């Protein structure tokens, strides 16, 4: 398969009628339609960009590292806010496990995450379906938050990176099982980002690894239990519940 200007196509099947080719395994063709296609992907991108712009409008500054939204949404086990109050997940503010995935420190941080989501999200959304892809993204975000708290509970952590790493993990898992192929590029994308994660300071290693594991587990459940959709969904929800439980154990 090769990456074309509007999605992914298979050179072996391009321009060949369905009667002439009988693939050994039923693999969905990833189609990127900008009218009715990857709605969840575009909605997630819109939410992240919209929240960042809202932070700017509220005077948070271009890094968006201050302000009401950041103060009430950043992931941290325990900290003191600008009013002197103790805040954090340890104080019962569990929403931070999810809200942090929609906050970013600056346009570069936001842009890089959204670029990867735009690149790899539509094919996965096509394969899993909108509801399952949305669930996978959210569960990966929770797994990333759990990993971040396990590794650095006192660090202020934001970004969709955990969820992004989750869908990258899903892509690698599906590619390894030859269920859904990205032309062999999924693993390379993960290796490149792993190098960046460990070489550049200030990046949440725990958040990235946690998201990667959560996304891979979710993709394994969805792909292995396709004939039992209810059980598959329950299994993925279980990954999210386990992630929250791990986060709780650190506060």
Please write out the topology.
Elements: E1 2-4, E2 7-9, H1 39-57, H2 68-73, E3 79-80, E4 86-87, H3 96-99, H4 107-128, H5 130-151, H6 161-176, H7 185-199, H8 205-224, H9 229-248
Antiparallel strand pairs: 1-2, 3-4
Helix pairs in contact: 1-4, 4-5, 4-6, 5-6, 5-8, 5-9, 6-7, 6-8, 8-9
List keywords for this structure.
251 residues, mainly alpha, Rhomboid-like fold, two-stranded antiparallel ribbon, globular, disordered N terminus
Number of domains: 1
Kindly report the spatial arrangement of strands forming the biggest sheet. Answer: 1-2
CATH topology category name = Rhomboid-like fold
Could you tell me how far the N terminus lies from the C terminus, measured between alpha carbons in angstroms?
A: 45 Å
N-to-C SSE string, H for helix and E for strand: EEHHEEHHHHHHH
Care to count the β-strands?
4
> Would you identify the CATH architecture?
Up-down Bundle
Largest sheet: 2 strands, antiparallel
Mean pLDDT: 82
CATH class category: Mainly Alpha
List low-confidence stretches. 1-34
Strand percentage: under 5%
Helix content: 55-70%
Radius of gyration: 19 Å
Please, what is the CATH homologous superfamily? Rhomboid-like
Give the oligomeric state of the chains in this entry, treating copies of one chain as homo and distinct chains as hetero: single chain
**Form type:** globular
Which structural category fits the helices and strands? mainly alpha
What is the helix tally? Answer: 9
């Amino acid at each position: 398969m090769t990456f074309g200007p509007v999605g992914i196509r298979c050179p072996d099947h391009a321009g060949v009628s369905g009667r002439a080719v009988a693939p050994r395994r039923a693999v969905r063709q990833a189609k990127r339609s900008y009218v009715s296609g990857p709605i969840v992907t575009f909605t997630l991108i819109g939410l992240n960009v919209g929240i960042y712009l809202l932070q700017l409008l509220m005077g948070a500054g271009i890094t968006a590292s201050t302000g009401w939204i950041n103060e009430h949404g950043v992931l941290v086990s325990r900290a003191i806010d600008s009013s002197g109050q103790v805040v954090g997940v340890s104080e019962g503010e569990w929403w931070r496990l999810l809200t942090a995935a929609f906050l970013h420190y600056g346009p570069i941080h936001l842009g890089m995450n959204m670029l990867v989501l735009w690149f790899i999200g539509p094919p996965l959304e096509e394969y899993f379906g909108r509801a399952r892809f949305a669930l996978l993204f959210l569960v990966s975000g929770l797994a990333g938050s759990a990993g971040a708290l396990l590794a650095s509970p006192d660090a202020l952590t934001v970004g969709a990176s955990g969820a992004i790493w989750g869908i990258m993990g899903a892509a690698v898992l599906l590619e390894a099982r030859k269920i859904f192929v990205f032309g062999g590029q999924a693993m390379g994308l993960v290796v490149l980002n792993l190098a960046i994660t460990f070489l550049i300071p200030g990046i949440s290693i725990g958040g990235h690894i946690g998201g990667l594991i959560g996304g891979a587990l979710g993709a394994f459940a969805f792909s292995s239990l396709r004939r039992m959709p209810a059980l598959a969904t329950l299994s993925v929800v279980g990954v999210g519940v386990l992630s929250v439980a791990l986060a709780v154990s650190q506060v």
